[in-house]
What we know:
Strand order of the largest sheet: 1-3-2
Largest sheet: 3 strands, antiparallel
Distance between the termini: 39 Å
Shape: globular
Strand content: 5-15%
Low-confidence stretches: 1-7
Number of strands: 5
Mean pLDDT: 92
Amino acid sequence: MNPKQKAKFLEIQEEEIEYYYDILNENIVDFDCGTLCKPDNNGVPFCCSVRNAVPYLYKKEFELLKKRTNLWKEWIPSNKQEIKMKMEQESDDGIFCECKGHQFCERENRSISCRTFPLEPYLDKRGVLVGLIYIKSFVHGCPLSKHPEKIRQEFIDTHFLFWEKLLLRKKDEYDMYLAASRTERRLRTKNKQEFKIFFPSHLKEREYLLKYI
């Protein structure tokens, strides 16, 4: 396989994005969770404002969405801090984007970033995906971080499946979340504070996991 073929193989393709969208269709709660945060954010749900969270799309995902809708456009930074973030975090296959706004939301055309917010994968001491945790940088902004009991098990199960598939596909993301999970464990030990882990149905109450998490 020549380098160009290898690069194309490693890049997430549009067909995969469509498959991931099918998996990530479950609602996170049984109600509009935006009602919890809109009153404190000028009527805009916390996760729908680029001031709080800028969606990160695979480039093939952006291409796919541009074929399906005019909802999305490339995000343009407005200050030095944002320019720095864009330069440091965008990659060969990823780009920061923004949509027209929550009032124009098309649920079938939400990005993967939108669909998975505010959870990310958690890997145990063995490097095995065992559940989901709150994204640390948004844990104080999203009100669902104070109401873990409201997050639907169906959401956890399907999102676990998505991350299981994606982390096998993308080693760079596996490495990133492996490092993030190690950081969570170090902070737990240092601060003596537990963090919530959302386990998929098939791993719930598996006591053998306790020594690894």
